[in-house]
Specification:
Helix content: 25-40%
Structural class: alpha/beta
Strand order of the largest sheet: 3-2-1-4-5-7-6
CATH architecture: 3-Layer(aba) Sandwich
CATH superfamily: Vaccinia Virus protein VP39
Strand content: 25-35%
Number of domains: 1
CATH topology: Rossmann fold
Distance between the termini: 50 Å
Largest sheet: 7 strands, mixed
Number of helices: 5
Order of helices and strands: HEHEHEEHEHEE
């Protein structure tokens, strides 16, 4: 029997997400690369209408089961082209916990454009991304590159260096 193993899914929502939404009224949220839906469940329990996209069907099946009492919008799709029909939006909040840094340069540009169209003006976007460990490291994306990718439609209002492997949290607001 095939078993899906997601060692990064601790069953605990990201503390950065928890802090960010603590004072916000519920709205519509999308988790890009939602995996098994842990962060979506946290939001749904607080009154948010949630949507998630991931390319792993087994992870989405687990998310559906986890969120069955909340009627989430979930789609197996390419994150560079969020499907309008399956993920109706628009969204007040977007979360990406480790998806963006794995895309090609072309994919990152499409992702940024697609997200800008789907997030309301003034909406929040939380991004967690790996950073290169050295100048020769091809994994991750630099802070400068992340900011450049989103600068046309988003303003970076907070940045937190990650712990452990080189990484960071980026807090963006969709330009008005």
């Amino acid at each position: 029997m095939y078993r899906f193993c997601a060692p990064w899914d601790t069953g605990i929502p990201a503390p950065e997400l928890v802090r960010t939404v603590a004072g916000l009224p519920p709205g519509r949220a999308i988790d890009i690369g939602c995996g098994t839906g842990t962060n979506l469940l946290y939001l749904a329990r607080r009154g948010w209408r949630v949507a998630g996209v991931d390319f792993v069907p087994r992870a989405l099946a687990m998310a559906r089961e986890k969120l069955k009492s909340f009627s989430p919008d979930l789609a197996a799709a390419d994150v560079t082209r969020l499907p309008d029909t399956q993920l109706p939006g628009p969204y007040d909040l977007a979360l990406d916990l480790g998806c963006f840094h794995g895309l090609t340069a072309e994919g990152r540009a499409k992702y940024s454009e697609t997200l800008a169209r789907r997030l309301v003006r003034g909406g929040l976007f939380l991004l967690y991304a790996w950073q290169p460990a050295s100048p020769r490291d091809r994994r991750g994306i630099s802070r400068e590159e992340v900011v450049r990718c989103f600068s046309e439609s988003f303003t970076l209002y907070q940045y937190e260096q990650g712990t452990g492997r080189p990484s960071a949290w980026y807090y963006f607001r969709r330009k008005e």
